[in-house]
Amino acid sequence: MKSNKNYVLITGGTSGIGFELSKLFAKDGYNLILVARNENELKKVSDELQQQNDIDVVTISKDLFYPGNAFELYDEVKAKNYAVEILVNDAGQGLYGEFADTDIQKEIDIINLNITSLVVITKQFVKDMKKRGSGKILQLASVASKIPGPFQSVYHGTKAFVLSFTEAIRNELKDTGVTITALMPGATDTDFFNKADMQNAKIVQEGKLAPAADVAKDGYKALMAGDDKVVSGFMNKVQVAMSNISPDETVAKMVHKQQEPVNSDK
Ligand SMILES: NC(=O)c1ccc[n+]([C@@H]2O[C@H](COP(=O)([O-])OP(=O)(O)OC[C@H]3O[C@@H](n4cnc5c(N)ncnc54)[C@H](OP(=O)(O)O)[C@@H]3O)[C@@H](O)[C@H]2O)c1
After folding, report:
1. What is the rounded distance in angstroms from the CA atom of residue 126 to the CA atom of residue 131?
2. Fold exhibited by the domain 7-259
3. pLDDT at res. 5
């Protein structure tokens, strides 16, 4: 018999932190709706999770660089009558380089994915959750939400948006039965840096990347507890605490050092 639990919709559930979150939900018997672009990966992950767990996994291929597809996603889920009890907005990308040199089209795609589509998806599902009086949402923010990010200026800006947006809605949703939680990882060992063209950055070459499974566990626990936010990892908690009491210019200088290319002599 398949699980009789409602569905968890996870954007970006095929790789990295999103995949590890998918595994945690699957282990606890939740049915899943996985959203990503690559159909082969969606099929592979769906087969794997269904073989290992007694659950239903639905896959929907959407490119969320296009916010119109975020509206379509909701319409397709509604048309099939899937009850989404938990929403995880995980899909997100970055782009490495000094802002004067980076490709504006790629940056617009990133703003569309990390902000616009996330807002559209949150809007649609939160309405249903509020009406029903129950639901949980996990938003992938980042330690980047709290610190300016030389070499990733647009990405850090998008994650600052995600945290601010999440904290504001959380206040509005008080006493509705719906909770919204921000997960704030530091640098994590996933395909993110490949996609962002960031393999040459000091933080990737010399830093210690957290295992995605550990980050997912922190997010899962905070989501289930209905917490406001969680910074994953001790050193990331220290960095966020330091950034709260240091001048922004000092923090930007420090992040510049962490994120500059390995061969930089600046
Ligand atoms: N890794 C880190 O250091 C780190 C740190 C803090 C926060 N985060 C955040 O964590 C989240 C997950 O990142 P990750 O590190 O796990 O990266 P990842 O391994 O690259 O996974 C990204 C996931 O999002 C999907 N995705 C990417 N672009 C998409 C698009 N245009 N439309 C729909 N789906 C898309 C990918 O599938 P397809 O490619 O098939 O579409 C994949 O499933 C992101 O929001 C990221 O900003 C990451």
Report:
1. 8
2. Rossmann fold (3.40.50)
3. 72
